[in-house]
């Protein structure tokens, strides 16, 4: 089994989940005490957070591309960028390396189609929800995406950067998230993309009567499937 590359620290909270899922999934498929070889490059999230808020995607790209090249040099067979928002620069990262970048929105789209859905709600940072790089990717698969109202977008963005990134998950935040999910369902969403890799810590499938798409699990599964196919 070849190595999987993972750019982590985006945040450390979800990086832990990526590491766990990648190993659990490999063991599930291979049995015994099998696990997967993972090459992790963990960045400083404070730096990424400040650059993101400043809209400085050029310097974010420099940092993430450097991490990707280091991972490639270490012998990884593919690359996972461990955050939905950072896929804003996925094409630039792919141009900087030869190994495939497994795009999170692409594998999520495939999972949505597998479940026969055509219209989904998207939760995440304001960048993931509003900049178009994610919703446009889904649209290529004829998947319609709806996002929360602006007040809720601001709230979700705040909780992701100022609570979840610090491993803080509050009961009152969960109540608000469930309200947002309910409103998206009323607007016609057939499923909900948990489009921030920390949201699954707060919201579980058992909390909802609508299908949830856990992007960490879906992304991790795609990485394991890729290296097992080589």
Chain-wise SSE layout:
Layout (H helix, E strand, L loop, with lengths): L3 E5 L3 H19 L7 E5 L2 H9 L3 H17 L4 E4 L8 H7 L7 H11 L4 E5 L2 H5 L2 H7 L4 E3 L3 H13 L8 H16 L4 E4 L4 H4 L8 E4 H14 L2
Parallel strand pairs: 1-2, 1-3, 4-5, 4-6, 6-7
Helix pairs in contact: 1-11, 3-4, 5-7, 5-11
Report on this model:
This protein has 230 residues and is of the alpha/beta class. The strands form two sheets. A four-stranded parallel sheet has the order 5-4-6-7, sandwiched between helices. Strands 2-1-3 form a three-stranded parallel sheet, with helices on both faces. The radius of gyration is 17 Å and the shape is globular. The protein has eleven helices and seven strands.
- Rg for CA atoms: 17 Å
Taking strands numbered 1, 2, ... along the chain, how are they ordered across the largest sheet?
5-4-6-7
Query: pLDDT average, as an integer?
Result: 97
Distance separating the two termini:
8 Å
Percent range for β-strand residues: 5-15%
Discrete helix count: 11
**Shape descriptor:** globular
What's the total number of strands?
Answer: 7
Largest sheet: 4 strands, parallel
Low-confidence stretches: none
Percent of residues in helices comes to: 40-55%
Spell out the helices and strands N to C: EHEHHEHHEHHEHHEHEH
Main features:
230 residues, alpha/beta, three-stranded parallel β-sheet, 11 helices
């Amino acid at each position: 089994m070849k190595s999987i590359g993972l750019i982590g620290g985006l945040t450390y909270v979800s990086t832990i989940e990526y590491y766990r899922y990648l190993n659990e999934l490999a063991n599930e498929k291979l049995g015994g005490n099998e696990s997967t070889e993972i090459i992790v490059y963990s960045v400083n999230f404070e730096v990424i957070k400040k650059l993101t808020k400043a809209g400085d995607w050029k310097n974010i790209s420099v940092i993430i591309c450097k991490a990707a090249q280091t991972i490639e040099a270490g012998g990884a067979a593919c690359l996972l960028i461990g955050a939905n928002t950072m896929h804003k620069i996925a094409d630039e990262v792919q141009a900087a390396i030869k190994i495939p970048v497994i795009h999170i929105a692409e594998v999520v789209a495939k999972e949505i189609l597998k479940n026969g859905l055509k219209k989904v709600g998207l939760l995440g940072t304001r960048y993931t929800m509003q900049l178009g790089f994610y919703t446009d990717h889904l649209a290529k698969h004829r998947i319609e995406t709806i996002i929360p109202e602006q007040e809720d977008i601001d709230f979700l963005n705040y909780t992701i950067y100022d609570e979840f990134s610090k491993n803080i998950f509050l009961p009152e935040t969960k109540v608000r998230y469930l309200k947002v999910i309910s409103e998206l369902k009323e607007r016609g969403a057939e499923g909900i993309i948990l489009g921030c890799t920390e949201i699954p810590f707060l919201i579980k499938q058992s909390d909802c009567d609508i299908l949830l798409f856990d992007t960490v699990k879906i992304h991790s599964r795609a990485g394991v499937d890729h290296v097992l196919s080589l």
